[in-house]
Amino acid sequence: MLLSTEAVKWASPSKKSELETNQKGIRPSEKRSKTPGYNYLRYSGLAFQMLAFILLGVWGGYKLDEWLEMEYPVFTIVLSLFGVIGSLVNLIKNLPKE
């Protein structure tokens, strides 16, 4: 009798999430990557975030140069480079680690 109960415990999955599937037989964790257009939306969102980082750096540098009446656009160059570096860091952090 003890042998049969251990066999049942060993054969049955221990986590409830392993048993849960939707109607098509896909687990909830797998459903997201199988959705059509998911990667397109994800990467286009990252592109817009990169654009926002860079444009905010350029705009902020331009306004600082304008406000301080600089002859050479030092802040525009520096803040735009910070925007590029920040956008690349954000991109690397959000890419899948496969």
Secondary-structure blueprint:
Layout: H1 2-11, H2 28-34, H3 38-67, H4 74-94
Helix pairs in contact: 3-4
Q: Mind explaining what this structure looks like?
A:
The model has no long low-confidence stretch (mean pLDDT 78). α3 runs antiparallel to α4. The chain is elongated and about 65 Å long. With 98 residues, it is an all-alpha fold. The protein has 4 helices and no strands.
Query: Judging from the principal axes of the Cα atoms, what is the shape?
Result: elongated
Spatial gap, N to C terminus: 45 Å
Helix content: 55-70%
Kindly state the mean pLDDT as a whole number? 78
Structural class: mainly alpha
Q: Key terms for this structure?
A:
single chain; 98 residues; 0% strand
Give the structure's gist in a few sentences:
This protein is mainly α and 98 residues long. The protein has helices spanning 2-11, 28-34, 38-67, 74-94.
